[in-house]
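Quick one, T. Sequence first:
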Amino acid sequence: MATYRALRLIEQNAPLVEQDQPIPELAAGEALVHIQAAGICRSDVHYLQGNPRLPPLPRTLGHEVAGVVEAVGPNPPAGIVEGLRVGIHYQTSCGTCRYCLAGNDQFCVSGQMVGNTRDGGYAEKIVVPARNLVAIPDGVAIEHAAVMMCSSATSFHALSKTRFQPRERVAIFGLGGLGQSAVQLALAGGAATVYAVDVNPAKAALAAHYGAIPVAGGPDAVEAILSDSGGVDVALELVGLSLTMSQAVAVLGPQGRAAAVGLSEEPFSIDAYEDLVLREAEIIGVSDHLASELGPLLEIAARGDLDLSRVVSKQVPLEAGPVNQVLDDLAAFGDEVRTVIVPFAPE
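Structure tokens:
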């Protein structure tokens, strides 16, 4: 049987291991994609560390995936053909349950997640439902499209969930892959001002390059934003820390909306009257994104309003050593914004 190389999580808190995996026969509605790029997301660090814990191991990580269609099974969706450049929507869904019919496919009762409950993109190939593939427009680099399948899409969804409108003021806490996309998407959507908060000066400088006002992360961030804005309309918490979640609420003005996006099991406290009731403020949970959002997101990139050329700051080959080092650096909150695994990339 033909095989492909994959980097696998064999046990929690241990380095990924290279293994050969069999290429299965394609069922109706499935597609085999030759992977050209796979982003390394902070969520992968959480999975490796066991918080949240993955289903039974081993598992191939990687949910930011793009490549070229290599083969399709019987009855593929219209337009899905061999040779097509595609991004992969990482949430598989049935299309028929009440959540899918309502357009909320991330809550599908039988859904799975690529790189979590099913094998992901730290590999040469991947088999997914063909309905999860979205064509990449000309002019969008395939390594950028891979990152858009998670970090950009989640930021896009978060802004949508907050009901963000043009001329509103926005604060973004955390300037990794999600945060740099959020800065650009908010400005492309007509934000009056975007405050970009991070403890890493290099990441704050990159956000400033895209047009944001950089704010040093830490205890003084709230006062810096309030003194300049009087309170923002939308705040996105993209880190997953109790401090930054509390700060995202604290910087809100009247009828402001704070989105909790970062993965965390840390509790945080609020004063229900001062923080919410008095201001009619809201805290909104954000889970993943929708398949229907990927096409419009890629079109934003195609017209030049979302540029990830500086966000994708490093490329590594599909080899255990370099990938494990990136995961270690990411866990330590290093300077790299987004690293992408690509075939034959230099170390």
